[in-house]
Structure formats: structure tokens, C-alpha cells
Amino acid sequence: xxxxxxxxxxxxxxxxxxxxxxxxxxxxxxxxxxxxxxxxxxxxxxxxxxxxxxxxxxxxxxxxxxxxxxxxxxxxxxxxxxxxxxxxxxxxxxxxxxxxxxxxxxxxxxxxxxxxxxxxxxxxxxxxxxxxxxxxxxxxxxxxxxxxxxxxxxxxxxxxxxxxxxxxxxxxxxxxxxxxxxxxxxxxxxxxxxxxxxxxxxxxxxxxxxxxxxxxxxxxxxxxxxxxxxxxxxxxxxxxxxxxxxxxxxxxxxxxxxxxxxxxxxxxxxxxxxxxxxxxxxxxxxxxxxxxxxxxxxxxxxxxxxxxxxxxxxxxxxxxxxxxxxxxxxxxxxxxxxxxxxxxxxxxxxxxxx
Length: 354
Ligand SMILES: *Cc1c(COP(=O)(O)O)cnc(C)c1O
Prior knowledge:
- The protein is of the alpha/beta class.
- It has 2 domains: about 5-20 and about 60-160, Rossmann fold; about 25-55 and about 165-350, Rossmann fold (3-Layer(aba) Sandwich), CATH 3.40.50.
- About 40% of the residues lie in helices and about 15% in strands.
- The chain has helices spanning about 5-25, 60-70, 90-100, 115-125, 135-145, 155-160, 170-180, 195-210, 225-230, 270-285, 290-305, 330-335; strands at about 30-35, 45-50, 80-85, 105-110, 125-130, 150, 190, 215-220, 265, 315-320.
- Helix 2 crosses helix 3 and helix 2 (about 60-70) crosses helix 6.
- The longest helix is centred in the N-terminal third of the chain and has 23 residues, at about 5-25.
- It is globular and about 70 Å long.
- The site of pyridoxal-5'-phosphate has 19 residues, from helix 8.
- Pyridoxal-5'-phosphate binds next to helix 8.
- Pfam families: PALP.
- Keywords: Pyridoxal phosphate.
- It catalyses: O-acetyl-L-serine + hydrogen sulfide = L-cysteine + acetate.
- InterPro entries: Cys_Synth/Cystath_Beta-Synth, TrpB-like_PALP, TrpB-like_PALP_sf.
- This is cysteine synthase.
């Protein structure tokens, strides 16, 4: 006899997946913005504006994939509470999708997370469970799961939840948008590593497509990805804390695939912030600190290419909306309290093109 519970569950799963599919179909692709700097002739930059997603960051893609992965693995049921550990961006996107599917959501986050992100999760009907010690978020999320919640587990599953072969993943989208550019096969793609999902997807896709494009991870100085990547040491830990949210993890995450990354450029926080400010002057809109880290790494790679007389395109990402950091990276008092003076680095950056 067929268990009526299972039949009901499959119907709900089918409807939930239908909701996710329709959301994806209603959404437009994010823009790829081109930047030409006179000091780098023959080296055009491109930035994919991932802040343009409905939930304001590249985590919109990940959250959609994680819900789909949980549903297709039979781990997520009707009315089940959903939980994840997140520094904020993922929680905002997951809260949005949970609301869409009619599921309660709990975000486990460090108490130090930008207040605006906490407010955003709450505004979407999510509950924030704040922990004082950031590394405790994982144990706390596991505790909720042991009490019956579905753990979306961004850090454990980011690397496998996304279909790296295509299916409009971020790498496929970038290369499609590059197709008509004068140098359609980028010399470098630059991204950060938080869960490692973005770098894993891009690195795999570049190989799958047989491209020569190299992948560079832009990392806050002393972050665990940089430490681990050099020696392929998964036990590596960060040697320095960072104020850049979303990247610069304290430990090597399960989704960090060192072997698909050709270079890691470490960027000091002050420089990342100066570059985030630079982006605001260029685009008239604010982006978060990790977008600044990406820009800093792009400029570093471009300088190296210029020195060697190389030409080629460099592609990177604008990861999230800068409004989220109004009370932190864009607040002079907050910066002064941390002895960060990004304005002192203005001179070391190229003039903003008008
Ligand atoms: C998550 C995140 C990243 C890094 O992306 P991953 O795919 O998780 O490695 C970069 N910037 C921001 C703002 C993020 O939230």
C-alpha cells in the first residue's frame, strides 16, 4: 500500500520546485559592466553586477540552488523549519526563498553582523539566532537541525548544489555575455571565496569548456583560503581577522577547491574599502567590501599583465549591495574606531573614469 504521507510530500515537493523554476524564469540575468582604464590599454575590465538580484547579492543563486538541492534530495518537507549559518547575505536570500515557499526560517549569524543585514532577514520574516563567537555558528545550526529543522548547509553544500556544467550558472552566464566582446575569452576571472561555491563553479566550468582562462581568488590578507591554497592544507586557519563580510573565512571550508584556482591575491581591508568607495564614484551606487577586494585584485593582475606587455580581458563580480554597509564600511566613525583610513589610499588608485 502506498503511504499517503509520502504521496502528499511528493506533491508538495513538485509544487515547491515549480515555484523555484518560475522564480528563475521571471528573473533577468545580471548585467556585465565594462570598465576601460586609460592606464591599462588593451586590458578591459568587466564586472558582473550580482547586487542586481532580487535579494541583492550573488547568494540569490546559491539560495535557489540549496533549496532545490534539499527538495530533490527529499530532505525538505512542507511546513518544516529551515536553518542555515550565514554572515548575512545568504541568510537574506534564504529568508526570501523560505517566505516564497511558506517555510519558517532561522538564520544563525555572528552578533557582529552588519545591523542592516539582520534587519533585512527579519523584514523577510526570518528569525536571527545571534552567536557571540563567529566559529560557533556551525554547531548552533547543527543543533537546530537535530531539533528537526532542515539545514540548508551553505558551507557544506555550496560546491555541489550548483550545476557546474551549465544550467545558466554564473560562469556560463559570464562567458555568454562576453561572447561579442573583442577579447571574449578572459585572461582572468577574479572572485572571492566565502563558501567557495562561486570559485568552484567557475573553475570547473572553465575546464569543462576547454578554455585557457585562469581563475584568481581575491582574499582578505591572511584569510584561510590563501593560507591553505599555497600548501594545499585543509587544516589551515586564517592568520588575521577581516572586516570584509562574505569572504576571508577563518577556516578552510568544505567547498574550497584549491586545484581549480591558479592564483590568490591577498588584499588588505583598508584597500578593499578604498576600492569599494572607488566603485561608488564610478557607478554612482554602493557595493560591499568584497566587491572592493575583487577590484583590488583585478588592478593587481592588470599591473602584472601590463608589465609583461600582455593584453587581455579581466572579469570579476560586484557581489552585493553597499547599502548593507552604511553603518560600517561607509561610516567614517566606524572606520576611525578601527583605525582604518581608506581615504589615505585614494592616491594609489587610478582616477575614476568619467
Ligand atoms: C558569499 C559571498 C562571497 C563569496 O562567494 P562564495 O560563492 O560563497 O565563495 C563574496 N561576497 C559576498 C558579499 C558574499 O556574500
